[in-house]
Design brief:
The chain is α+β, with helices and mostly antiparallel strands. The protein has 2 domains: 45 residues, no CATH class; 29 residues, no CATH class. Helices cover 45% and strands 18% of the residues. It contains 2 helices and 2 strands. Strands 1-2 form a two-stranded antiparallel ribbon.
């Protein structure tokens, strides 16, 4: 249980460091794009291209029975 807690704390710190590293003087879209680039790097380049339209999307992750993760964008509208 301690290992899971340590891993979660480490992941939370990586995410916070990534968020802290984004320039908040940039427009919101630029910040989002910068975070997606960082997240894609953390995930080993497995993120699909983000949708081009202005709709609302969530990033989903599906893990198959062999533990392989697949990421996709799903519209929330």
């Amino acid at each position: 249980m301690a290992d899971e807690s340590t891993a979660q704390s480490r992941n939370e710190q990586i995410l916070q460091d990534t968020i802290d590293g984004v320039e908040y003087t940039d427009p919101p879209q630029s910040r989002i794009e910068a975070l997606l680039v960082e997240l894609n790097g953390i995930l080993g380049g497995k993120l699909p291209e983000a949708p081009d339209d202005e709709g609302a999307y969530v990033l989903t992750c599906t893990v198959d029975d062999k533990g392989a993760a697949t990421y996709s964008w799903e519209s929330t509208t």
